[in-house]
Amino acid sequence: MTGKVCGMCGGPLPSKAGSRGRAALYCSAACRQRAYRSRHDPTPDVETLIAEVGRVANRLTPRPSDTFFADLTALTSDVGRLRRIAQLALRGKEENVTPAPVTETLDEVAFAGKIEQHQRELRVHCYRMVGSYDDAEDLVQETFLRAWRGREGFEGRSSFRAWLYRIATNTCLDFLRRTKRSPRPYDQLPGVDQQGEPPQFMPWLQPFPDSQLASAEAEPGEIAETRETMELVFLAAIQHLPPRQRAVVILNDVLGWKAAETAELLETTVASVTSALQRARPTLRQRLPERRTDWARTAQPTEEEQVILRRYMAAATGSGDSRVMAELLREDVLVTMPPNPLWFSGRDVFLNFVAESFDPASPAYFGEWKHLPAIANRLPAAAGYVRRPGTRIYRAQVLDVLRIEDGKVAEITAFEPHLFPAFGLPLTIT
To answer: Residue 336 class from Cβ within 10 Å (0-12 exposed, 13-18 middle, 19+ buried)?
Structure first.
């Protein structure tokens, strides 16, 4: 039977009667591609991965906290990888009309392992496109599903990474066409004397955990490009661009792709890419500080910023000194709370608002506060927990992300607490 059955699945080969050329070795393009992968892509050792999950889980201990967080991060990554391997294997079974041979299962595992290598950077890419961590998570999973369903269409003309970026970008563009999000100015608050014009309201904007920005083995160039293009000021600015212009800027100016590569990915011309960049860049310049160094940052908050964060957390307990809080804030500090429509412009306006919630004698008293430090979008952040009157547990309430300029807090973006687990933060403390 040698030469008369498929070298991959064992099925009959197509007839070559009357045709010229070399005899076929495989019955279909799918089997030919699976054979290629089996020769070039090593299959992940799933048993080793399972054993590693068990090893890390068995050594978990809450102290010291940095080791505990590192182990939890590794455990979450490995478990997520196993879950995706299993999901792809199950989908493969559902889509096959005939029982799959053993080689098909191995191919599914190999494919899952290969796309897993790009999960972190694709999540960041989708986050830049849509500005929401939750949506980025969903879009990465949709990208992987589209990649799995269209795996036979990968012809190797570009790199596997570029192919995934094409799918991820188109997935984000489809999402943005469906949702049609547009920033708009905040409404004026009645009875509140705000300073300056209302800022732009983007209720979908969410923070991004720094721990997920770059892996330990990331290339230095990858870390450098995330420093400034993950800050909230950049994320907010890029939301003003139409989706296709946004994709061109991210691919060309952020990721450093050439115009021809961007054009190929978006299935357009180099002239169209150049035109989109020429229209997008002035819009970004209007939304960003005049000098790039005003918002470009180091990889981590500076020592000065960490000191300011600690003082901010101490002053924000309610029992802290209000004069310290006033010293920390810039006179024209801007406070926003997406997706909440509340906003405050000006130090006195903001401090008057929070004073009543800190006063136990006030009907608006909210409770006692504690804070834990965090880092979001390369910025120092304070995770706030509140113990409501009559309760014993401090529950997650808010994540304050601080933008500090010249030793003062210039902007506070207060986010809802449901993303605390993504930051490695507990939802309750005692």
So the answer is: buried
